[in-house]
């Protein structure tokens, strides 16, 4: 387990080891927001999509889309502020970069595969 520092009063950790065969990323994270049993588990896609040996899960852009929606909501309500605006702009830039990556992977025929693009 690898603890990850945050700005929140929570404990975040990568639960699994980084997988060198899958981009050297971790795929299971836990967020402890209270006592020992107050944990949210986040499972990322592990392995090529649709293969029997893969573990289905969320994608990076799924979480970024949630964060973008949440920040846009804050900016349309009583919690609008310059910090939220900057974070929203950054999340949108992050999502745009991921979109470019997906487009390049599609163009190179490697979307959904553990392969370089």
Looking across the biggest beta sheet, what order are the strands in? 1-2-3-4
Strand content bin? 5-15%
Number of domains: 2
Largest pleated sheet? 4 strands, antiparallel
Structural class based on helices, strands and sheet pairing: alpha+beta
Average pLDDT rating? 92
Helix content: 25-40%
Secondary-structure element order, N to C: EEEEHH
Plain-language structure description:
- By secondary structure, the chain is α+β, with helices and mostly antiparallel strands.
- It has two domains: 1-58, no CATH class; 60-111, no CATH class.
- It has two helices and four strands, in the order E-E-E-E-H-H.
- It has helices spanning 60-75, 82-107; strands spanning 2-4, 11-14, 28-32, 39-43.
- The protein has a four-stranded antiparallel beta sheet with strand order 1-2-3-4, with no helix packed on it.
- Strand 1 (2-4) and strand 2 form a beta hairpin.
- Helix 1 runs antiparallel to helix 2.
- The longest helix has 26 residues, at 82-107.
- The chain is flat and about 45 Å long.
- The model has no long low-confidence stretch (mean pLDDT 92).
